[in-house]
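Record 1 of the preview.
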Amino acid sequence: MELSVWRTFVTVCRLGSLSAAATELNHTQSAVSRQIRGLERQLGVALVERHARGVRPTPAGEVFRHHALATLNEADRAVRAAREVRDGAYSRPLAVGAAPSLASGIVPEAIRGLLKQAGSLRWSLVPGLSAQLHQRVIAGDIDIAVVTDAPPGLPHDLRVDRRFLGLDGMVVVMPVGHPRSGGGPVHIQALADQTWVEDNDGSAALLRQHAARAGVNARIDLTAADLHGKLALVATGLAIALVPGVLTRALRTDVATVDLIDPPTRGIYTITPRRDPHPCAASLHDQLAAAFAPGRAAQAAHHPTRTVAPHPHAPADRFPTEQNHA
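->
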């Protein structure tokens, strides 16, 4: 099978359109269709199905897309590495994955520290949900990922090494000028009449669980596509939201945060492949621990009875077997 055909298939899946894929790849739509049909004949299974707004992968197509993407990424790395050796400038790039709130918060700070320490280093940052990042570490696409154990948790997987960075307390974000902004920590009951917005299942589950323990319901009436959309809805006064405490240093200026009394928490971890780890992965973990430390100190000040210092092994009950969505 030619990798160019695999690339066409992956592009079709990403764009959800034969015509859009043809434009991006500088092919005709008929050529793209022929490549997809030829690939289906080789595999003996349908890979895409049409719907009202374009095409989408079949279940078999989605499985093939996952493996094809990993193969193409590895092939691209192989080509780059060979050319770098030819040019006498080889250095293994560092691919860093991070959950959205961490990609906007402590990860850039940690990478800056790593670059000061390591000097010249090619690197890339790949935001994604924790479950997706876990799979990409296994596939070899990412050298180190910074993930969370927000519901439904992180999987046990002997193919990766997981190191605990610390606990992150969630906070409430609301528009500047909200009657509760600028005050001290509040009970969730005081916000029971508010409209909430969420952007992922993990954060929504933390909010619902925290509210249920207090005997109230959290009205999650709005859903945002991502963290930036969630904060935009808060800034316009349409809702309030639960966000990770580690994000507070990177929030936009037209929102304010309020601490919850006994807030829900999530564990923050790095995961790296056990086979052939990147030489700089351990150093980046140390930089991440240093970047996370100010957040732990602030959390300890708000909750003096809560132990938030990092430890080498997180409690066993923080690891359900399902994969994470935050």
